[in-house]
Amino acid sequence: MRIGIIGTESSHVDHIVDHLNVKALGDGARVVALSGGASRRNELLRAKGAVERIVDEPTDLLGLVDAVMVTDRDGGLHRAHAVPFLQQGLPVFVDKPLACDVADAEAIIAAARAHDAPLTSYSALRWLPDTDALAAEAAAQGAAQVVVASGPADPDSPYGGVFFYGVHAVDVALRLAPGALGDIRVERSATAITATAVAGATRVVVNLVRPTETAQIPFHAMVVSREAIAQRTLPLDDHYLLPGLQTFLRMARTGTPPLSYDDLLRPVRFLHEVATTLPG
């Protein structure tokens, strides 16, 4: 399978090239072409993974690849970069977040539906073994009453503000709390944002703490049932991206997205409300 990557500034691209081209962990899938990002960085990635081509425009990938990964840091670019490939029926993964605007997210999904193109998007934390273990432990305890997820986020990030890192904690929280989202309440202190909502029958609390120049809090999630609490810190190792990458490759091969399109929209809706209701 020939993979094209659009937007190469993220460190995720280093991991993808390493897993697929260097370590050959993709069962024959390889990154064969890159577009977007700084030319010097692209040449380094090309040399590292023996990538065949660097093209000027994202649409130059058409005809060269079997599937596309859109990995721009700024989710505001994702609609323009994903839709042309969905319109051609290609499988597309959009790295977190799907978009920084609900209308953009809905447009991406509409293109996938209209052209029967497999589409998915998620935080890599959704598929971590620790997240799987937490979900299994919580399910064994009975219905979740409260889910709390915490992680770093900078509302002033140049890459889409709170969307850039905030999506990690939100995506984990909403994996653990399925169901329709109710109203979202947002509170802010000097260094943290807390957003609460009801998802299905579960109260969801997301804590986003501004990182410093030298440190950030670890990702953490907790599920409270009526009789027990399950919780995990969710550390990131050198292989944290691999489970999510393998999930995308399964979709590309089978044509079956791993998540419903409503599940793709829920984190965007949640964070859009956070971004638009933050006090000044």
Structure notes:
- By secondary structure, the protein is α/β, with parallel strands linked by helices.
- Helices cover 36% and strands 22% of the residues.
- The protein contains eight helices and twelve strands.
- Helix 2 links the parallel strand 2 and strand 3.
- Helix 4 packs antiparallel against helix 8.
- The chain starts with a strand and ends with a helix.
- The mean pLDDT is 96.
What structural class is derived from the secondary structure elements?
alpha/beta
Roughly how many Å apart are the termini? 48 Å
Q: Share of helix among residues? A: 25-40%
Spans of at least 5 consecutive residues with low confidence: none
Write the layout of secondary structure elements.
Layout: E1 2-6, H1 11-22, E2 30-35, H2 39-49, E3 53-55, E4 67-70, H3 78-86, E5 92-95, H4 102-114, E6 119-122, H5 129-141, E7 146-152, H6 163-176, E8 185-188, E9 192-199, E10 202-209, E11 220-224, E12 229-233, H7 242-254, H8 261-277
Parallel strand pairs: 1-2, 1-4, 2-3, 4-5, 5-6, 7-10
Antiparallel strand pairs: 7-11, 8-9, 9-10, 11-12
